[in-house]
Amino acid sequence: MPRRRSVFFHLSLLILVIFFIANRSYADVSVVDDAGRVVTLAAPAQRIISLAPHVTELLYAAGAGKYIVGAVSYSDYPAAAKELPRVGSYNAFDLEAIVALQPDLIVAWQSANPAAALEKLQALSIPVFFSEPRQLEDVAGNLERLGKLTGNEAIADAASVAFRGTLRKLRNQYHTAREVSVFYQVWHQPLMTINGEHIISEVIALCGGRNVFASLPALAPKISLEAVLRKDPEVVVAGNSALNHSGWKDDWRRWPALRAVKNDHLFYVNPDIIQRHTPRILQGAAVLCQQIERVR
Description:
By secondary structure, this protein is α/β, with parallel strands linked by helices. It contains twelve helices and 14 strands. A hairpin with a 2-residue loop joins β10 (187-188) and β11. α5 packs antiparallel against α6 (153-174) and α6 runs parallel beside α12. The termini are far apart. The relative contact order is 0.11.
């Protein structure tokens, strides 16, 4: 009899341990965000606020679009994102509107969202995940972690695998190509570009290009026209600047000695597919790679 009680006791204990582990693994969701912070949720998020257009797109790609209850302006991809309730813009969002939506997760953009406003949200004990992809691989990593935070690992992992596969093909295609010097124009007044730490700089390198302002300290520095003329790039690529200023090519044609102008290597890439840290950035990369290949 004592032996039976002992067996029963140990069996019951084993069942309890298994039950505890199973429930704990479901309840505790923990990842490290792009700021190096551990973000832990009591359960997968089901009410999410997106504070950047690229975040909205990443959430949809990770299978979590159905859980977004609020997003900032210019969150326009995929089409369903256009119907989301707005909580302001990425640099001026409405704290009261966000709190009223009762989010269980906020996905923020650390380098662009107002720090003071983010601190207020964190003070309310609302979990905040910082999404800040600086390298192409980080896009895949964001998909995986957002998938885990929202209980959509299967969809998110499949998306990350597809992204890495396309990235690998592009690397293999252009890794031995002749280097071409590139100036990427973010804006025209003031004239702005990107440094070597920006994800677009990696896209340029992926295509066998060299960002002529890679060594500058600021992520998106203002520069002078004279600095561009001194660098004398073989290619000028415009994103938002071209989209918002139809005369951007005419501005450069005032300097016919510039190699990019002399050879008519003034190109445009839709900023939505190269300036957003999302899977679509590889679409932009494919366009840019083809343009640079024409230069070769």
